[in-house]
Amino acid sequence: MKLGIDAQKLPEFLKRGPLASLDHVKELGLGGLFFPTVLDMSPTLDQGALRDIRAKADELGLYIESGVGKINPYCSAEAPEFRAIGHGDIMLGFTRMIEASAAIGCRELWISPGNFKSEYRGRLANDRFRTDVTWEEQLLAIEKVLLKLAAVARANGVHLNMETHDEITSFEIVRLVEKVGEDCMGVVFDTANGLQRAEHPVFAAKRVAPYVRQTHIKDAYVGRAPDGLDFQTRSVGGGIVDFGTILPILAKANPNVNLSLEVAASVEDKPRKANPRQCIQINDPAWRAGHPDLNADELDAYMAMVDAYEKRVASGEIPDWEAYETSQYGYPTYENQFYRYEQAVTFIKSSARHIEKLCAEKGLPLSIPDAKRQAA
């Protein structure tokens, strides 16, 4: 395993571009870079540019991973670049992205079932609760797209890996993998997103472990709030996720899986909008009805986990939502909401140290970059 980072969370990624960002990753002592889609490597799928990125990564001893993007047809209008790269044909666009990725050896490809819209509060921030189409209809549409792309994936020797994203459950992803075929489909396990679906991270890890081919390593605060539960991204090790239990599960299932940090982003490149508090409306009847797979045993374990975390918050060991937001983001003053470069680097290094420490303690096969090994 190598420990890297998602390009969207790497400070100054847009400013530096892909090649210089690989140098940046190396400077930070990380082992690789996860480009959300191949278009983040080259918006035109320029073969020369893509080969240069692969060569640079190989020269530096870094992994690179990539993706195809959001494949929910009901979200296509929100990502016009996928249709554009197919000259109006979105399926051709996806096909071209798969072929371009495979040509440079990126055969584990991220896909996502929707968009999270942080400007909205509660369940309406999620495509799961769209009011123009049901989630069941969206899942069926996603399945149809995947079945169309399955032949392309098989022909190019790639896996289309569905992220445990904000709106989908691990139960639903496993069913999709079983229907489409694990020979061409897998999972990107995001360690914190399932919390928004009231899934216990350890339970979710065990469910998806046989299919995990990529990861997003993320942590979060979850605590009681008037409308349900607050959710807030935290530095890895400072949140509710039990990485000490989850990492061995992942390593046992796939000892070569890369661990890509997806921590709170620096917004030097893209200023952060003033957002409402993210709320998991776990007590809302409509929210509960929208999670038919959620069982009593897992929900009890989930709430016990929340109770244990809240005790740490009450003791002062962990800052509460308001204290953390104020110290990290300048809430609620818009002018102070920029997560600056220095803060972002501190956040990344703290998260990396936590994962490296746990891997060392658990005897897990984590490769340490040469620069960091020499520094040690």
Brief characterization of the structure:
With 376 residues, this protein is α/β, with parallel strands linked by helices. It has 13 helices and 11 strands.
Notes on the structure:
By secondary structure, this protein is α/β, with parallel strands linked by helices. It is 43% helix and 15% strand. The chain has 13 helices and eleven strands. The chain has helices at 13-27, 47-60, 80-84, 90-103, 135-155, 170-180, 201-208, 243-253, 285-289, 296-314, 321-329, 341-362, 370-375, and strands at residues 3-6, 32-34, 63-70, 108-112, 159-163, 185-190, 212-216, 219-225, 228-234, 259-261, 278-280. Strands 7-6-5-4-3-2-1-10 form an eight-stranded parallel sheet. Strands 8-9-11 form a three-stranded antiparallel sheet. A hairpin with a 2-residue loop joins β8 and β9. α4 packs across α5, α5 (135-155) crosses α6 and α8 packs across α12 (341-362). The two termini are 19 Å apart. The model is unreliable at 329-338 (pLDDT under 50).
The helix/strand class is alpha/beta
Largest sheet: 8 strands, parallel
The total count of strands amounts to 11
Radius of gyration: 20 Å
* Overall residue-averaged pLDDT value: 92
Strand order in the largest sheet: 7-6-5-4-3-2-1-10
Helix and strand string, N-terminal first? Answer: EHEHEHHEHEHEHEEEHEEHHHHH
Q: Specify the overall morphology.
A: globular
Low-confidence spans: 329-338
Instruction: Calculate the terminal CA-CA distance, rounded to whole Å.
Output: 19 Å
The helix content is 40-55%
Please tally the helical runs, counting DSSP H or I stretches of 4 or more residues: 13
SS strand fraction: 5-15%
